[in-house]
Every structure is written in C-alpha cells, then in structure tokens.
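Shipment paperwork, digital attachment
Item: protein structure file
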Amino acid sequence: MRRYLDAFITKLYQPCDPSLLACFRICFGFLMMIDIPQERGMSRADATYDEIPDKYCTFPLIHGMKPFSQDVMIILYAILFLNAFFIMIGFLYRINIISFTVIYWYFFILDKSTWNNHSYLYGLIALLLSVSNAENFMSVDGFLDRTKLNTDVPQWNYALLRFQVFIVYFYAGLKKTEKDWLTGYSMNRLSRESVFDPFRFFMTNDQIDFWIVHIGGFLFDISVGFLLYFNKTRGIGLFLCGSFHGMNSRMFSIGMFPYVMFVSSFIFCDEKLFKNIIAKTVVLNHCVSTKACDKNSSCLYDESISSKRWKPNQIAAALFTVFYISSQSFLPYSHFITKGYNGWTQGLYGYSWDMMIHSFKNQHAKIMYKNLQSGEIGYLKEGVFLSGKRSRWKTQPEMAFQYAVCIREQLKKFELNDTAVYFDVWKSMNGRFQQRIFDHNVDLASYDWSPFKQPNFVMPLLSELSNRREKLREIKRSLRNVTSDYDVVFVADFSGMYLENFVHQDLGNTTIYIMSGEVIVESKDINVTLKSGGNLKITQNEFHRVHTVSENIASYYYIYVNTTAQFMKKRLNECEKYIKDCDMLEGQGTCSSFDQSNEANKEDIQHFNPEITELYAREQRYKQSLHNLTSWNYFKWFVFKKAALFRRSFLLAVYAMRNIVIGKPLSVDQLQMELDYLNEWMTPRRFQNSIVNTKEDPVTSNVGVKPEL
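Attachment content:
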C-alpha cells in the first residue's frame, strides 16, 4: 500500500513548465472581466437587489439565506471584477483568487434560479486555480518576487484542470444517452439557425436536427475528451472544439462559456506550448523570459524521490486530489440521495452536466391563494414578488416550495395572515403533451419538504404517451401545410382532474378535439361530454373547464387562429403594397407619400390606422438593420453593447461607494438624474444607431408617422 501511495504522490509532484497554466490564468481572468457585468449580473444589480429588504422572493440553496443591502451587493460585484483583473495580471494572486472564489460562490449559492452548468464550472475552475501556482509565469508577483518567476509547478496543478475539462465533456455525453436525446426530441427546430446553412445543401432541417444536433452532439461530447488527451488526436479534438463552441456562441446567449471551454481545451497540450509560442514571437521574446524553469521546492526531482519522506503539504495535496476527483465523479449521479430536488428531471439544474437534455414549453401557470380564516380565494399574477424573469420554479419542486412560502409571507403585508398557496403549472417536456407538473390541490406553503424525501406533490411525467409525439408532429405539419395562421396545443390530464382555461377574444375559431379518454367541457352556457374523436367549438372571451372523467388519462388538443394577428397581417400587406405603389408613381405626381395635406390621401391614412403603419415601420427598420448588419457593423454593435454594460456597472459601483461612505442623496430629482444617466447608453435607439448609420428613417419619411421602438 505504501508503495502505491509513494508512486501516486511522486507522480502528482513531477515538475512541469508553468507557462501554459499562466496562459490559462490570463485568459480566465480576462473572460471573467467580460462575464461579470453581463452574465453574473453586475450591470443590473440595482434591479436584482432592491433597496427595500424582502421585497422580492429569492431562491438560495441554503433556505433563509438573505442578500446584503443593495449597495453592499454592488460593491461585492466591484470587488469580484477587480479580483478578475488582478488574477489576469497576476498581482497579489493568492489573495485575489481566494477572494474571487469566495465571493463568486456566495453569489452562486444565493440564487439557484440563475444556475447553469457553465456558472458552476467557473466556480470550480476558480477553486482549482486558488490552490495552484498559476502565478509562476508572466505575473506581477513574479516580477516583484524573483523566486516565483519562471519556476516549476507540480503536475497535479494541470491534472485537476484536465480532469475537470474532461468530465464536463464526458459526463455531458453520458447524460445524452437518455432516450429523448438519442431519438431526437430534446432540441427541436435548432436546425433553423444560420450556422447550419452549409449542411442544408444535402440535408433537410429534420435530418440536421437528428443527425447533426442530437447524434453529432452525443458523439462529440462522449469522445472529444479522449481526442484531447492523446497527442496524436489532439489536433482533431481542438478543431472540433473550436467548431462546436464557435457555433454555440452564435446560437445561444450563454456569455463567455464557449470561449472558456475553447481556451480550456488547450490545457491538454504540452506544458511548454505557450512558452514556445513566445519564443517565436519577436516582441514577446524580448519581454518574457523563455529560459528553462528554476526548481520549485514543492516539486519532486530525481534526487529527492528516494527520500520517501513526504511533507504535510504534499500529503494534503494528494488527499485534495483524491477528494476532488471522487466528489466530482459522484455528484452528477447523487440524485438518489437528494430526492427532494427531483421532479421530472433529476436534481437541480446546473451541476450535473446535463446540458440542454430537456427543453420545456410553458402553457400557463396559475397561482391561487386561499384565506384559511374567511375561505376567500384569490389569484396572483405569474411571477409576482420576483425580480426579473424567474421561471425555474415551475419545474423544480424545491424552488416551487420556496416560492410558495415566500408568497405566504408576502401576503401578510396585505393583512392576509393565514393563507394557503396553490400552483397549477402546465408544461411540455421534449415535445410531449402539455400536462400539469404539480398537484394543484396541495398547499405548497405548508408542505413538509425535505432534501432527502421525494416530493409527492410532483405529478408523474406521462411517459406512456411519449410514443405519440410523432403523431403530434404530423398534426402540426398538416396544419402548417394548410395555413400558417393556425396553431395547436396538445394537452393530457389525469383522471378526476380538470383544466381551467380562458380563450382570449383574439383567438377565433378555437376548437377542442379529443384524442383519447372521455372529458366533460363545462362553461357558462354548455356542459358537453366528449369521447375519443369528438370535437367542440369553444366560446371566446370566457373561461371553460375540461374535466377528465375517464378512468385513464385523457388527451386532447386545441386548434385556434389568432384572428387579430391575421387581420393585422392582412392590413400590413395592404399597407406595404400601397407604399410601394406610391414609391413607383411618385415621380408622376400621382402619389404624395402619405402627404396629409392631400385630400385624396386622407382617406388612405385613415384606412391604415397608426398601429398598422407603426408595425410596418418597425418591420422595415428591422429588415434594414439586418441588411446593414455586416461583420464590421456586428463587431461595432458588440463592442458598443459591452461598453454600455461596463459603463453602467462602473457607475453603479461609484454610486454604491458614495452611498456607503457619505450617504445616499435625499433629493428625488438628483436620484432620477442619476438613474437617467445610468441608463443613457442602454436605450434601444442607441443600439440601433450604432448599427444603422442613417440620419433619416426611410420608413418614417414615407409613412408620415414616427413610431417609437
């Protein structure tokens, strides 16, 4: 046993060149500087953390955990940003990387509703860098302390990072062995993205969705870690990583994740790669030393291996390596222990590497409360008491429980001291029927939730209906072939339950069709029993209920047409035709481009109401923006947007520091002026002007109406 332990520690402490690790440190710090104002939320921290305590519901991992005051949270963001900058340049590296790691994980634990696999990965990388010697090359610390400059680092510094990158890919591939992914139901309609245009020469969109997105994605994830590990296949792995993450950066708004993963793939290369590149670069070669590394007392060299007397720090590093590898190998499959977080999917989203395995479509969510003293029932707007868009509570049972408890506490402010809270949430997962996810008869605010007990208020996923998904696609295709104005919603419900639905007045010709089971459709004027194959037209602008009375599950679907949108589309086409005719005849004096002084055109102006002309103007401006969106304009827009986020983040930090040191201004006018100054670069018009360099709106000049964005 001792012999194996000696060999293990000896391998971990083999000396390695620090240059590649330093390159990774520089890139990570730089990318985090870009990520913090945007994805981490620094630029919108004033909206996320309100000045009024407990104004919004939050979803911390540790129940009862509360954020600090608004100004303190903004200052923490500013410190996090400065930490990232100092990590990049390697100044006071150990202090800054530990500070970055602690603050980052504090923000991460504080709000589960924003968890993603990539935000979890950033925290893990920060943790690994905090115990590494990444400052031993190209760092300010190295220039200030020559004993650190260009000195070896132990092999385990690289080994843990390589393991982490490998497991992200490999476990993502293992998660994709799920049937929904391998049969092509997880990521529908992704083939419409422009990055797949080269494949469209010889493949249909459905073939791209299945073979490229699903099968290709599975093969990439399961194999690319091995391709990167071996020298002979590393070039292929790097090419595939560059292509894959480049496509992701264009398709998804996932911040710096594609760039972090692409940079991370180079950690598998030879440790001297970065130093060799510097040696071949004339400018850098004169600034950075590329000579052989000095020895590091933490590493094991040939003359020190025979001693077999391990230092405490060497044993601690070996134990940490074993613990980290074991925990990260186990956590993605630990959901049989943490049953309280399991719903239709296993565990909380964000640490299992099950990236994009499940796609959800939300039909509606109804929040109902009941005054237990008076029996009065009331309804709340979806998303009430939440800051911004927080929708993950609709799929995660533990977050639904937290939200229900928070709503009950918030209602106490309105003298409703004893209430029950019920959720009726309808969702579709991976192209299945819309179905309720929570039992709407269970008071979630009073539920006895435990992290180790399966929540029994979660309704089971109707997997027995999964084989009907192809039939659902056929119905959609048949409708699409007839007209694009119709839409369809598929619903399945449990025996003894009912769906309460409201048909908006815009949805004309709404009809319900029964696929299986037996239901009773009940409204103000009707009470009709329908069986498989039956249908009924639903009255607009009123509620109706669909009771499932059969012993088994009932499935049905609605077909409807948005008559208002249909009418607007028709009038829009007429408006567009009229304006084009005016442009063609303008030179002959028969059209005055909507000149309202012309009596002949007044009737036309009334014919096309302002909503129509505004809609047409917006569409034309959008088309013009796309036409002018060259690569250079896209780059300018990207830089302008990032500059606006950085500007707002910086100003928030300045105002927060001012508020803490000398106090917040009492003048409402001054506060409003500061808010306007904060948002000056964030308006859509400023973004549009950064792309479309036109002094005159060609649509506005034709239509005679200047619509707002």
